[in-house]
Amino acid sequence: MPVLLYFYAIARHRQVDPMSYWLMKSEPDVYGIDHLAAEPTRTTAWWGVRNYQARNFMRDGMRLGDRAFFYHSSCPEPGIAGLVEVSRLAYPDETQFDPKGKYFDSKSTRENPRWLNVDVKLVRRVPLVPLAELRAHPELAGLRILQRGNRLSITPVEADEWDFILTLIGKA
Please, is 16 exposed, middle or buried when counting C-beta atoms within 10 Å of its C-beta (0-12, 13-18, 19+)? Predict the structure, then answer.
């Protein structure tokens, strides 16, 4: 779906249901669901996003209270490991300003930051729903993470896909 059509769909959807749903990928050896659960407030900034479309989802699409699946990627068994809630709207990602850091961006300034993050709060851990399990259900054929060539770290999830995955979690 072209990006402009996506944001038009969000605007129309929010007239009926103010909540949107997302899938947010993280490598568990860098920052996984266990790291989030160990945070004193069970809240963290979703830092390190360096893709403009994923950044725009955070900036333009995410609202307080939106829910997301916390997805473990680039690991032996990728899959959904938890549920999180957007607890702070998009603001500058501090990692872009650290010249010694992996996520430094020399063209980004505090006056005109390129990269943003949102804060997410752990709702709950869930039994892992592996990627293979997601692929096994035709009801999830449109899920962006299952599309060939998708490498975005943040993707929207349709309400019917969200509800179906929650039933999978409930069966685990």
Answer: exposed
Model's pTM, two decimal places?
0.88
Residue 3 Cα distances to 10, 29, 37, 58, 64, angstroms: 11, 31, 33, 13, 21
pLDDT per residue as tens digits for the range 34-45? 999 999 999 999
For residue 35, is it within any domain? yes
CB 117 within 8 A of CB 69: no
- Contact between 83 and 157 (Cβ < 8 Å): no
| Closest by Cα among 51, 56, 50 to 7 | 56
Residue-number span of the structural domain to which 127 is assigned: 21-171
Number of domains in the chain: 1
Helix, strand, or coil here: 39?
Answer: coil
**Strand partners of residue 122:** 84
